[in-house]
Design brief:
The structure is a homodimer of 338-residue chains. By secondary structure, chain A is of the alpha/beta class. The first copy, chain A, contains 9 helices and 16 strands.
């Protein structure tokens, strides 16, 4: 099944805002051969996620920007097909920052992880058992610190992180209110992910619908969007509220700095806390969070949704599509039979 | 020395923004006589503080607004002059919410506190040993969580809270950078309160001067102002920064909500935390914080500055003056010989 060549998606130019298809190009190179201590991974799944916009941005960020002409940085999952390290035999399922390409040449020391949950689909290593699930788990439980009976509001609630946050909130005894764009995503929140209420931010009645869904106030706001959605949520904070800043999907550009209603008085009067985090800061957290999430998956207490794009030719437009709101579920690119 | 009448400052009308002299009127009433379980306090000192603006506001707040026609709520310190409670004998020094008036009739159960630090001036019970000092102590130490070597930036640094924050920061091994309005307050920060650097936000070079003073980045921002001052500080956050929201002195009105640069990306990229607090929520914290501050005062490790207005006739304009930046030091109104 493997092609004799390695198709790679390179960053062709630096985007100002959201990376579009034209910022990438696909090249064909020879399949790499491992040197000493190296392995080659045949990628089965490539991940597409909102954070990738930041990875190509020249603006100060939590990681070095992807260089022009380099393979686009991404998480991927696949199997080792060649190895010069006996600790990583051929056939091992692995996940890591293998990039948008068919084959990744990796120093064994920098492999992300061996995929332990081989009873579950490999694609979950990029979603609910990958960055998305661990992000949801850390942000909600460590920063949000939910208590039973509290109301948790989640923006991009139908997305890979948001849907997981809502379900974990309910597992912890909270009421989950989802905010999503359009009737299909709103219904997904309610019917597939079991949110107690869901509100469509694109609908004309968003502000009153949110007020009704949050009649008892908001104890935790898990924010993936910033912008007008957050402005609406901030008016409903309960005393002692926690706002978890996970992403800023609604803001097309931070140059010049976008304006919005000041938050200081909300934070002061409601004794509220607003906190950002980057899940890469907490490597020790990933394995135990994955173990708990895997348990919920096996017990059918947690579900997830994937949107599969077949073929690497879909990669260049895939990030832009996320920001257009095209997708339903965790966006993945499939490169090989699974 | 006591007048035969009780002069009281009443709230005459509800301000939209900052309360001005015209929002108050002074009346003369009989000196009260205590009923069962009551005491009468002769106020020696009345407090004037920025938070009083919120106490008269009809906008949702952390306390019920002062009613029109009621004595203006304020902290005061004085001595018991009549008592029907043997636990509170005549002559006891007390501090509490006794209001802007010569004499306060108080249920013994609602007295704020007996002033224990009788070796120190009674006026300190309203400032460095009162709400201001405890606010500085709690906000910096509990929310800011300073570590030696960190840089702490403080807005309204020459004020009653800010000057205390800067000095405690230095006692904890931090570098203190003050932001204050005008050369006199800037010099006060440097020469009287020992800040490592001080910047004048009214000066034309504020933004570059702040950048120079914060060349190593900002670990803690103790914010009393919000507004343009905060916007400038936010661009210098270090990873893991803590922003303590104590007040919003620079914002004249919150209706309609003032706009400013969105903070979400700063919080996300810098993994920063922004948190508001109200010191009244933490009654158990006051006595131990006061004890530590009193120790610093006795050891000459902490200093404070007071601005004394002699006579209750200064009260109506006193809050507006704070917001005009008229004062140097903790603003107090003296009603009796001390």
């Amino acid at each position: 099944m493997s092609p004799p060549i390695n198709r790679q998606v390179l960053l062709a130019s630096r985007p100002e805002g959201i990376p579009q298809a034209a910022h990438f190009r696909i090249v064909e190179t020879p399949v790499p051969v491992p040197g000493p201590g190296q392995i080659v991974v045949r990628n089965t799944w490539l991940s597409v996620e909102p954070a990738m916009r930041g990875w190509v941005s020249a603006v100060a960020n939590y990681s070095e920007p992807v260089a022009i002409g380099a393979v686009m940085r991404s998480f991927a999952a696949g199997y080792i097909v060649a190895s010069n390290d006996p600790a990583w035999p051929v056939g091992t399922a692995v996940a890591g920052l293998f990039g948008w390409q068919d084959y990744a040449l990796v120093d064994a020391a920098t492999i992300g992880r061996r995929v332990e949950e081989t009873d579950l689909p490999l694609s979950t290593a990029l979603g609910v058992l990958g960055l998305n699930g661990v992000t949801a788990h850390y942000g909600l439980l460590q920063l949000g610190q939910p208590r039973p009976g509290e109301t948790v509001v989640i923006s991009t609630a139908a997305g890979a992180v948001g849907s997981c946050v809502g379900q974990i909130a309910r597992l912890k005894g909270c009421r989950a209110v989802g905010i999503a764009g359009g009737p299909a995503k709103r219904e997904l929140c309610r019917n597939s992910f079991g949110f107690d209420a869901a509100v469509d931010y694109k609908a004309g009645d968003f502000v009153p619908a949110l007020a009704e869904a949050c009649a008892g106030g908001v104890d935790i706001y898990f924010d993936n969007t910033a912008g007008a959605i957050s402005d609406a949520v901030m008016t409903h904070l309960n005393p002692g509220a926690r706002i978890v800043i996970c992403g800023t999907a609604s803001v097309a550009s931070w140059v010049p700095p976008p304006q919005g209603p000041r938050v200081e008085r909300h934070l002061l009067v409601k004794r509220a806390r607003m906190q950002g985090f980057v899940i890469f800061d907490h490597p020790e957290y990933h394995a135990p969070a994955r173990a708990e999430i895997a348990g919920w998956l096996r017990d059918d207490e947690l579900t997830y949704l994937e949107e599969v794009l077949d073929g690497i030719e879909h990669a260049p437009d895939a990030i832009a599509g996320l920001y257009r709101g095209d997708n339903l579920g965790k966006r993945l690119i499939r490169l090989a039979e699974t």
